Amino acid sequence: MKEKINIMLMIFTRVVTAIFLIASIYITYFFGSTRVFGSSDIWAIMFIGLVSAVCYIPFLLEINYSKILMVILQIVYFLIINAVTLITGARRGWFTFKNPVNAISFEAVIICVYAIVMIVSYLIDSDSAKKMNQKLEERNMK
Q: N or C: where does the chain have the smaller number of CB atoms within 10 Å of the terminal CB?
């Protein structure tokens, strides 16, 4: 259980960090350097991170999913995060659907954040798996 909570905290941290990095670029480009994050913006970003972490729970269950089911889970996971982020962003005024370029660019930001988090998670998890396999091999050699 502790390990699963740690993974959820890592997902939360990665999502929030990626949002802050990408959002800083996005806001500077679309709104200029005078726009600042308000406390409600920060809470909204943390809410998105929380939703991302909680929605990751199905991946933490000790179930052997088929490849098709895993792809479906990934798609559903992305769609939920995408919907929550779009709704939160629209309500916070981060973008407007009335401006198609702004809305499309915001969607691109969501996709970038998702991709960054998934790539970082994959790289870190792959590295951890390699280290564990190496330790197992060293133990078997003894």
A: C
Q: What is the largest CA-CA distance in the chain?
A: 67
Given the structure tokens 């890592």, which residue do they identify? 10
- pTM attached to this predicted model: 0.80
Cα 23 to Cα 30, 45, 61, 64, 102, distances in angstroms = 10, 10, 32, 36, 13
Query: What's the pLDDT tens digit per position in 92-137?
Result: 888 888 989 888 988 998 998 899 888 988 888 777 767 777 776 7
The C-alpha atoms of residue 50 and residue 69 are separated, in whole angstroms, by: 24
Ramachandran region, residue 44 (left: φ > 0; alpha: ψ -120 to 50; beta: rest):
alpha
